[in-house]
């Protein structure tokens, strides 16, 4: 269905193609023009250039020679870009060339209508694509900050910004020094060790308690179910600063403040809602007659749990565990208050670094953490699909 | 099953009462099974519930308690607060001599135990200058006692010795043990026991010496036969001797005591009021006493009044001056920014969720990764990314300057203000809006829109009258979630908020770690918690906590 052609496409008249492409060219020209000194000149040149190219493509070459034309345009823009702005210009030029070579044919041949219903008016088509552009820019907003961090972490300088060398793609501008710093510095390494000690311990606590409770909660008759649920979910809802304040006061009263145990307990409490939510969600689809069948065949409750129920809800338990792990691994407010300098974790170290803005080592750590989160995301996604498959739902 | 069990019970005697296999009535049997089931479910939940109650709910309760708790004044100044209870602040007169006497005793003991500065900083939250008043008084307090101490010392050098004092005040049996005790033995010091009848003979002296003994033995770990008592004890002795008759006393050091008794009549003396005035003029300030009296009770609403920019006065709570009202401003700002963030999240999240819900599965899943990746990425990574993006030498400014839209000289200020906080937090919380919206939109059949259009609705009407109302639950769920999360955010405003873009939570953190005004932090936290719990309740009513979905 995705590739079906809904509307016959037909070549658009030049009176439509040339102004449209020209307008796009003018828009691009505006930016390049202002960057080079004269916005007005950019607009005029951009509009004329693109309109001319569109004319050539539509009237002279036609779509038999489309491939050749596209390569031609890309090459043209690459050369122009390189002459105007060196290596960064080359990249920008290449991108522009690639886009416009596609755009000219997309407009000129009327391909933009192919996947839309034939009865749409021109305004509706325009709105459709504007909407896609808007949504696309929101996706860009979502993902850009994360993408920007990565190249900056290879910065050879101690700056949080792109240096001219980096923009010239000069190898001199890049280095692994921040990564080296991360792997050799005592502070960062002890922070990493602390994080790797606290997070698994907290995860084990919250998963073991949480799974049991989730199974209990999914029984058909539980008194005060709502109230219990509200209490168990509350660590997720109560603002972290309040949890942190309360724990700081209370744990210093009972001597847990500044100990590993205190931090682990606090993080376990914060991770519990995630375990409860994911495991109960998995248990909703769990077929209760399976446990009855197992009991019928003489299995005791413990065997039933480990041989029948556990394998089926395991995906939910694991993804709950991952949530709990990331909660603890990522947590900084509570550990700032409940922990002491000895329990300094990775996020804590980053927080301090960020507040004082010492070195881009933070960005190297951030890049590594993004890698970690991509792995976790993949695992959770795979587990979710597996669990849906097991429960006979359509795999997403 | 009912029939089978009923049939299995042979020889039914009472018709109408169905019996189970073991002969019990079926109803009872079922009830028992149900009860068992309930118990089993509760047993499974109990460990976690206990765990959460202990590690999470108890700390929260402790915080709530701390926001009204105010024992420090009456604990540190027990005599003063007790005597001050009858004082009427409205008359405009200063408290009488007895109160000053109590203050001197209390403050002396507190200063020895180094508790007076703590009280000073506590009262400083209510009235500036209290902290330095207490600190200075702690240092200068010996002046009053020295008046009497010097005269006793002139009378008999033994009054400045540890051992005669211990003999006079201590129980003989205890004294023998005390004298035999050596630190090197590693045994515990024998606890001080007051000599018989001493608390009637010299009540004040006995009391202060006992306080001294406890402090010396417990806090300092020193021997009472080696440490000479505080000058406070001499003052107490002077007062006792002036009032009481010690001629009947025959115990140890009777000679010395009687000699002193005979001499005290001629001693130069000083009233406590004058003494305290010399220590610090502020002790004759009406406001000082008013504050102490106001905060004498065990519990106070003072922290809460502070948290809403009010203060206690003798005529009841009043608003502070305009220029001192910071918390109202902060609460309003927190509300405003949270609403802005929620609004931006709806604006940005709605199109994305719509696109995701209406694209074919495969493409939607690919795009979903773009939403989930930020969701799974560490909060600090995202915050640092925004710092990199928004700062004046940052990526956005660089691009704008390169494009020539902004002059190099006047780069945009986008960080350390409200704008920075709102942008960064919108990015961070956007997935929390998109995910609930998406799950609601997935359930809206696309045929409805088509039906509306085929009935002649324009695109806009079809969306506004048919699609949008069905997506409102998603907006509600997402908004409350985003609002709850943003209202208590700490890390991001702390890093990108500067001074104008901070939330109430930053103030709470400041009071916990910098100004150490824990009570006020607790009160602010309690108010914030109440708001959040109200929203949580609403969320539960609208969406149901069970329906929260992740990923």
UniProtKB/TrEMBL annotation, chain A:
Protein name: Putative spermidine/putrescine transport system permease protein
UniProt xrefs under PANTHER family: INNER MEMBRANE ABC TRANSPORTER PERMEASE PROTEIN YDCV
Family the UniProt entry places it in: Belongs to the binding-protein-dependent transport system permease family.
Annotated SUPFAM superfamilies: MetI-like
Organism listed in the record: Puniceibacterium sediminis
Record InterPro entries: MetI-like, MetI-like_sf
Residue span, ABC transmembrane type-1 domain: 192-380
Transmembrane segments: 12-32, 38-56, 68-84, 90-108, 129-154, 196-215, 227-251, 263-286, 312-338, 358-383
Localisation: Cell inner membrane; Cell membrane
Gene Ontology CC entries for this record: plasma membrane
Main location: membrane
Topology of the protein relative to the lipid bilayer: Multi-pass membrane protein
Top-level taxon of origin: Bacteria
Keyword Iron: no
Keyword set, alphabetical order: Cell inner membrane, Cell membrane, Membrane, Transmembrane, Transmembrane helix, Transport
Any Pfam family matching the protein: BPD_transp_1
A single GO BP: transmembrane transport
Gene3D superfamilies: MetI-like
Automatic annotation (TrEMBL), chain B:
Family annotation (CDD domains): TM_PBP2
Principal location listed in the UniProt entry: membrane
Limits of the ABC transmembrane type-1 domain: 331-539
InterPro entries: MetI-like, MetI-like_sf
Gene3D superfamilies in UniProt: MetI-like (1.10.3720.10)
UniProt record, GO biological process: transmembrane transport
Iron among keywords: no
A GO cellular component entry from the record: plasma membrane
Membrane topology category: Multi-pass membrane protein
Cell membrane recorded as keyword: yes
Segments crossing the lipid bilayer: 41-61, 335-357, 364-381, 419-440, 472-491, 518-539
Compartments where found: Cell membrane
Keyword entries, A-Z: Cell membrane, Membrane, Transmembrane, Transmembrane helix, Transport
PANTHER family attached to this UniProt entry: ABC TRANSPORTER PERMEASE PROTEIN, INNER MEMBRANE ABC TRANSPORTER PERMEASE PROTEIN YDCU-RELATED-RELATED
Family statement: Belongs to the binding-protein-dependent transport system permease family. CysTW subfamily.
Entry protein name: Putative spermidine/putrescine transport system permease protein
Source organism: Puniceibacterium sediminis
Taxonomic classification: Bacteria, Pseudomonadati, Pseudomonadota, Alphaproteobacteria, Rhodobacterales
């Amino acid at each position: 269905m995705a590739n079906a052609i809904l509307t016959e496409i037909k070549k658009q008249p030049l009176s439509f193609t040339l102004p449209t492409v020209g307008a796009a060219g003018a828009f691009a020209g505006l930016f390049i023009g202002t960057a080079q000194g004269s916005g007005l000149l950019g607009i005029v040149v951009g509009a004329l250039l693109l309109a001319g190219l569109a004319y050539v493509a539509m009237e002279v070459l036609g779509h038999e020679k489309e491939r050749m034309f596209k390569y031609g345009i890309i090459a043209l823009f690459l050369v122009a870009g390189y002459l105007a702005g060196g290596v960064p210009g080359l990249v920008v030029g290449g991108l522009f060339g690639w886009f416009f070579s596609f755009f000219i044919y997309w407009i000129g041949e009327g391909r933009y209508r192919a996947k839309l219903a034939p009865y749409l008016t021109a305004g509706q088509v325009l709105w459709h694509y504007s909407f896609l552009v808007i949504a696309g820019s929101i996706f860009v907003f979502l993902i850009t900050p994360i993408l920007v961090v990565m190249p900056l972490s290879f910065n050879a300088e101690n700056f949080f910004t792109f240096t001219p060398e980096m923009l010239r793609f000069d190898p001199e501008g890049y280095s692994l020094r921040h990564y080296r710093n991360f792997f050799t510095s005592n502070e960062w390494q002890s922070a990493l060790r602390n994080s790797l000690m606290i997070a698994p311990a907290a995860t084990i606590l919250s998963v073991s308690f949480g799974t049991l409770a989730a199974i209990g909660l999914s029984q058909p008759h539980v008194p005060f179910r709502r109230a219990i649920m509200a209490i168990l979910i509350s660590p997720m809802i109560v603002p972290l600063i309040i949890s942190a304040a309360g724990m700081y006061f209370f744990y210093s009263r009972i001597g847990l403040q500044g100990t590993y145990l205190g931090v682990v307990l606090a993080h376990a409490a914060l991770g519990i809602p995630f375990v409860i939510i994911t495991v109960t969600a998995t248990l909703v689809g769990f077929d209760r007659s399976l446990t009855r069948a197992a009991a019928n065949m003489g299995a005791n409750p413990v065997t039933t749990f480990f041989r029948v129920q556990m394998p089926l809800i395991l995906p939910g338990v694991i993804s709950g565990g991952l949530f709990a792990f990331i909660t603890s691994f990522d947590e900084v407010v509570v550990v700032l208050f409940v922990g002491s300098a000895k329990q300094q974790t990775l996020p804590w170290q980053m927080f301090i670094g960020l507040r004082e803005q010492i070195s881009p080592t933070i960005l190297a750590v951030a890049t590594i953490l993004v890698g970690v989160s991509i792995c976790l995301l993949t695992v959770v996604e795979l587990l979710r699909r597996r669990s849906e498959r097991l429960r006979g739902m359509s795999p997403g | 099953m009912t029939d089978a069990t009923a049939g299995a019970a042979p020889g039914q005697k009472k018709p109408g009462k169905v019996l189970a296999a073991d002969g019990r009535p079926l109803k009872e049997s079922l009830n028992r099974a149900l009860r068992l089931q309930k118990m089993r479910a509760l047993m499974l939940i109990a460990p976690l519930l206990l765990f959460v109650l202990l590690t999470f709910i108890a700390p929260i309760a402790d915080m709530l308690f701390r926001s009204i708790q105010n024992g420090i004044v009456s604990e540190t100044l027990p005599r003063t607060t007790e005597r001050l209870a009858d004082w009427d602040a409205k008359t405009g007169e200063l408290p009488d001599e007895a109160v000053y006497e109590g203050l001197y005793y209390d403050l002396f003991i507190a200063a020895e135990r180094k508790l007076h500065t703590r009280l000073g900083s506590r009262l400083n939250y209510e009235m500036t200058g209290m902290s330095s008043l207490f600190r200075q008084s702690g240092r200068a307090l010996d002046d009053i006692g020295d008046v009497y101490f010097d005269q006793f010392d002139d009378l008999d050098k033994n009054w400045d010795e540890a051992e005669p004092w211990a003999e006079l005040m201590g129980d003989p049996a205890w004294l023998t043990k005390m004298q035999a005790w050596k630190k090197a033995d590693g045994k515990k010091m024998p606890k001080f026991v007051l000599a018989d009848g001493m608390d009637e003979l010299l009540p004040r002296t006995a009391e202060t010496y006992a306080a001294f003994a406890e402090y010396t033995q417990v806090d300092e770990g020193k021997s009472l036969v080696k440490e000479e008592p505080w000058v406070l004890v001499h003052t107490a002795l002077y007062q006792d001797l002036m009032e009481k008759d010690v001629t009947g006393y025959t115990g140890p050091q009777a000679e010395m005591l009687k000699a002193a008794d005979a001499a005290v009549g001629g001693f130069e003396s000083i009233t406590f009021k004058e003494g305290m005035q010399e220590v610090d003029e502020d002790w004759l300030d009406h406001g000082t006493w008013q504050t102490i009296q106001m905060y004498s009770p065990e519990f106070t609403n003072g922290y809460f009044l502070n948290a809403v920019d009010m203060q206690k006065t003798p005529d009841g709570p009043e608003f502070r001056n305009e220029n001192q009202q910071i918390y109202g401003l902060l609460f309003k700002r927190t509300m405003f920014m949270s609403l802005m963030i929620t609004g931006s999240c709806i604006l940005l999240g709605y199109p994305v969720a719509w696109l995701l819900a209406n694209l074919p599965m495969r493409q939607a899943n690919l795009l979903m990764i773009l939403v989930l990746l930020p969701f799974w990425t560490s909060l600090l990574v995202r915050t640092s990314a925004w710092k990199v993006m928004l700062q004046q030498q940052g990526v956005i400014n660089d691009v704008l300057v390169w494009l020539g839209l902004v002059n190099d000289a006047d780069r945009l200020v986008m960080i350390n203000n409200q704008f920075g906080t709102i942008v960064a937090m919108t990015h961070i919380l956007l997935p929390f809006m998109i995910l609930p919206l998406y799950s609601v939109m997935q359930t809206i059949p696309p045929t409805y829109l088509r039906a509306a259009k085929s009935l002649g609705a324009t695109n806009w009407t079809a969306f506004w009258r048919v699609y949008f109302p069905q997506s409102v639950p998603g907006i509600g769920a997402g908004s409350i979630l985003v609002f709850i999360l943003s209202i208590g955010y700490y890390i991001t405003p702390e890093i990108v908020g500067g001074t104008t873009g901070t939330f109430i939570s930053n103030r709470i953190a400041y009071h916990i770690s910098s100004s150490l005004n824990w009570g006020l932090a607790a009160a602010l936290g309690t108010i914030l918690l109440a708001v959040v719990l109200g929203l949580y309740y609403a969320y539960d009513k609208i969406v149901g906590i069970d329906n929260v979905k992740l990923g």
